[in-house]
Amino acid sequence: MMIFLPMIIACRQRGGTGDRPLVSCMTFEWGAGKDSYRVREQFINEHTTSAAVKITYAPHSTYVTKLLASFAGNIAPDLMFSMNGRHRLFLAKGIFLPLDDFIKGPGGIDLNDFNATFIREQLMRGGKIHALPQTQSTLALYYNRELFRRAGLPDLSTTEPITWDRYRELAQALTRDLDGDGATDQYGCAPGFDSQQPTYYFYVLNESFGCRTYNDDGTRANFDSDATADAFRFLHSLIYEYKSAPPPLVAQQLGGALFPANRLGLVINGPWMAYDFQQTAPDLDYGVAPLPYRPGCPRRNMIGGEAIGISAQCRNPAAAWEIIKAFVSPEFQKLPIQGLPSRLSVMSQPGFKGLPHWEIFRNEMEFGTANFFTAKYDQVSTILRQYAERILSDPGAKPRIPALLKEMNAKINALL
Amino acid sequence: MSYKTRYALLFLAVPFLLFTLFRNLPIVIAFIVSLLDWDITGKPVFVGFRHYIALLGDDNFRRAFLNTVYYVAGTVPLSIVLGLLFAALIEARFIRGKAFFRTVYFLPVVCSMVAIATVWSWIYNPMFGLLNQLTARIGLGRHNWVADPYLALPCIMAMSVWKTIGYNMIIYIAGLKAIPSTYYEAASIDGASKTRSFLAITIPLLRPVTLFLVIMGVINSFQVFDQVFILSQGQLQDSTNVLVFYLYHKGFNELSLGYASAIGYYIFLVILGITLVQFWLNRRHE
């Protein structure tokens, strides 16, 4: 009893919502701080009269497992968030209810205020919308202005992107051996660094080099294309020929430490990085520029974000819909987040205060695609990461890139 | 049945039920799951031993198995030899402050592996790490350590050995204290040197302790996970892919629960096989 009593007490339901139906919701809060979900819960409960919400938090790393396990146990929360790379997985598993009847119904909302590409490529299945975007994100090029100044380089344009060749030239100019021991102490660039999802950026680079990751119906991958081989040769030469970028595992391990420590000049990342700098390095002097492009190829970026949908096990979808409307309402969307608001009109309102440089990320949405975030994104990414490691950790791998990519593509196609 | 027997059974029933519920039942269920194709939300599909067969042709599993064997071979003998060496040194007559040294060497054992791995990740940091500062000063240059595919696993092994030595040392100290001093006195009268006494008396009489440490070391090392997870930042990498990490990856990242359970049973079979061989070898020596 001594073991189970505290568990029973901890598990008891808390009430206190009056006559309003209570809607449960689980979030990972890849938003604005771990405890901000409490602020959001309070905000929604104060601004919604027809329903109340009880939000529970799960860390980002275990969120999907917890959510799917609760779904399997028939105890899923009424509302669920899905994150970058997982939307199509959630849709494929049938855990969201279609929202079309609610959207078009009397208490519906105008979808024209949301990014159409993201909804079409990530949130639709069988011609129906299963979730609504709650935040949006794209990638951009962060540059360290202090290191630019030291190297005598001018600031980058906030509207005109540089080419990948110029990116390499800048990286070379920023690379330094500070103590003269022959090893690089200050890297020019670190493409693809992110300890959470190192492959995230390879997709964008690949598309930017002219490869369309999958065919139209998503049944065949094109990682064996010449464009992909060029993208990998580009990364390989940055590491070994120009010695301007760290090997992938070094970049992964050092994570975000190099850039704020003035040991890294250029890095590609999302708006959440600006949020991190606000919290941890408020004095850091950095700029943000549009993502580089390859001449002759269309400009490409990714469009990501969080989405919210109603669980297929929800007993009161009408009440859950009221809470969804609150989550995507213009008032709620003005709360601080690590990305962009999903409602485009919110960003057009005078006095809108987003993250630093939010306009550049918003402008990049025009070039965004999410077609590589398939239902098998995790499995494909594991294979991609392994081959990226094999290619980019081996100084002599450059001639073998086409053969390795062919092998990788065959493995990915076998998965699809 | 007497009331004493009834009470005894009643008290035994509580741990028995808890063990059955939380340990034995999951083991049985894991076997059943290993025969299914199941991703938590979908309907489980019975596939028989297909996962077990598929694993034999899985490159990642083969790599994980070889990496794990490499890890076991690198950590278990070294931590046992060093544990014995440290125990013998601390128990030597000329050493003062035995309790202090025992505490210092045992300290890593009681620390959380997650905390230790996090500290070591900074020691191994290629740009700002303590180890590179040291190697650069003595002319050995700087290295990428855990971020180098060839050095990553040896780095993790070194950290694991450092953490395990204290435990082995304490067990060996207990074993050393159990050896009657009369054996050494007799050997000394017969003119045996200290080294000869150590090789002819200490090591043979410590065989049961060594067997225990080898078995526990192999079992624990085959299940290496925490340090790999922390130092590889949760990413599946060729260089640090070990069996339990691969199991975790398949089960909780890719949600292939049947496949992950089959990996678990392979690990169990391998550990069982090695333990039985160790017992058999020990019996033959006796």
Record the SSE blueprint:
The complex is a heterodimer of chains A (416) and B (286).
Chain A: H1 4-11, E1 22-27, H2 36-47, E2 52-57, H3 60-72, E3 79-82, H4 87-92, H5 100-104, H6 116-122, E4 124-125, E5 128-129, E6 132-133, E7 135-136, E8 140-144, H7 145-150, H8 164-174, E9 187-189, H9 200-208, H10 226-241, H11 248-254, E10 264-269, H12 271-280, E11 286-289, E12 301-302, E13 307-310, H13 317-327, H14 330-333, E14 340-341, H15 344-348, H16 358-364, E15 368-369, H17 377-392, H18 401-415
Parallel strand pairs in A: 1-2, 1-3, 9-10, 12-15
Antiparallel strand pairs in A: 3-13, 4-5, 6-13, 7-14, 8-10, 8-11
Chain B: H1 3-34, E1 36-37, E2 45-46, H2 50-56, H3 59-91, H4 98-110, H5 113-123, H6 130-137, H7 152-177, H8 181-189, H9 194-205, H10 207-222, H11 226-231, H12 243-253, H13 257-285
Antiparallel strand pairs in B: 1-2
Helix pairs in contact in B: 1-13, 3-7, 3-10, 4-7, 10-13, 12-13
Structure, explained:
The complex is a heterodimer of chains A (416) and B (286). Chain A is of the alpha/beta class and 416 residues long. Chain A folds into two domains: 184 residues, 3-Layer(aba) Sandwich (D-Maltodextrin-Binding Protein, domain 2); 203 residues, Periplasmic binding protein-like II (D-Maltodextrin-Binding Protein, domain 2), CATH 3.40.190. Chain A has 18 helices and 15 strands. Chain A has a five-stranded mixed β-sheet with strand order 2-1-3-13-6. About 1% of the residues of chain A have low confidence. Chain B has a two-stranded antiparallel ribbon with strand order 1-2. The radius of gyration of chain B is 23 Å and the shape is globular. Chain B is 74% helix and 1% strand. Chain B starts with a helix and ends with a helix. Chain B has 286 residues and is mainly alpha-helical. Chain B has a single domain, classed as MetI-like fold. Chain B is built from 13 helices and two strands. The interface between A and B is medium-sized, with 35 and 31 residues.
